[in-house]
Design a protein that fits this description.
Elements lengths: L9 H14 L2 H10 L4 H15 L1 H25 L4 H4 L18 H4 L6 H17 L2 H7 L1 H12 L5 H24 L2 H15 L6 H24 L7 H25 L10 H20 L11
Helix pairs in contact: 2-9, 3-4, 3-13, 4-7, 4-10, 4-11, 4-12, 7-8, 7-9, 7-10, 9-10, 11-12, 12-14, 13-14
Length: 304
């Protein structure tokens, strides 16, 4: 399952960089570190500190830019179905799989190549922060991360350069579009439109990453609506409490997600799309508990 297409010199560029990695092995470790900045986990960690700590509205705005562009990116991925470079060329090595612990040629687990989700994720995070703050100096400081993540993706053999360019454009332009809609539309209407957009992807998306992102988006939206109605937690300027809120929130999210993941073992492989829908559900529930219910604890003096 999947398509193959290349632009001139793309594979040659990847091979040349991987030759350098062979000569200087430390480059592999460097690229693996750099690629982590494009992981959704990194974006969510930054957003969690903003949302629970510094300013709730800033965190939610940035999250919507990231999740919205990732949903769009995932839908495009599942439309083009471009196989990753190492799946096409035996000369290109996969130096870091998208999902470790699984067959690197399993496209359901590893996802498709075009566009780069990591690059669109860091681009939307950087521009989401900029669009809220309008701070150009902050934009100039953070923008190199987009380049670093992009280069690391094709250096590790998991993307073509064109995937990276497309991912960056989707992250930037998608953030501008989401920012515009978020400011112009009533919040609940905007939330509904985003959920409907994601729902459209259920009819043709087959990769796990799309269902993970969609689940997180649903959970954050439901959690935010619940929090606004029943919790009304206050932000804090205390750095120590910001960090504690982030640590405990991450533990709750990861712990609950892992427990729910164990239940997925009960779903047979022959269940069609049910495992993917369950994946979306467990990410949704974990996000809702973390965003909606967890802030009840902020009334405790320890986290207040």
């Amino acid at each position: 399952m999947g398509n193959t297409f290349e632009f001139p010199l793309e594979a040659d560029l990847i091979l040349r960089i991987q030759e350098l990695i062979t000569q200087w092995p430390f480059l592999k470790g460097l690229f693996i570190i750099l690629t982590q900045f494009g992981e959704p986990v990194f974006a969510v960690a930054v957003i969690a500190l903003l949302y629970w700590g510094y300013k709730k509205e800033w965190g939610m705005h940035t999250l919507l830019c990231v999740m919205g562009t990732q949903i769009i990116n995932g839908m495009i991925k599942n439309s083009f179905l471009r196989l990753r470079p190492y799946m096409v060329s035996e000369s290109i090595k996969c130096l870091k799989a998208a999902e470790s612990g699984y067959d690197i040629y399993d496209v359901v687990k590893q996802g498709f190549s075009f566009p780069s989700g990591h690059t669109s994720c860091i681009a939307s995070l950087v521009f989401g922060i900029y669009l809220y703050t309008k701070n150009k100096k902050l934009l100039y400081c953070l923008s190199p991360l987009i380049v670093f993540v992009g280069v690391s993706r094709f250096a590790l053999g998991v993307h073509y350069p064109s995937d990276v360019i497309a991912g960056a454009l989707i992250g930037i332009l998608g953030s501008y579009l989401i920012d515009l809609c978020y400011r112009k539309m009533e919040k609940k209407v905007f939330y509904l439109c985003l959920c409907l957009l994601s729902f459209c992807g259920v009819f043709f998306c087959r990769s796990e990453d799309f269902y993970s992102v969609s689940g997180i988006a649903y959970g954050f939206i439901l959690g935010d609506l619940y929090e606004n109605k029943y919790v009304h937690f206050e932000n804090t300027t205390d750095i120590k409490k910001m960090i504690l809120r982030g640590i405990f929130g991450s533990i709750i999210f990861l712990g609950l997600n892992q427990v729910l993941d164990l239940l997925s073992l009960l779903i047979p492989d022959t269940a069609g799309r049910l495992p993917l829908l369950y994946r979306s559900f467990r990410y949704c529930l974990s996000s809702f508990v973390t965003v909606g219910l967890y802030p009840h604890l902020f009334k405790n003096e320890f986290l207040k």
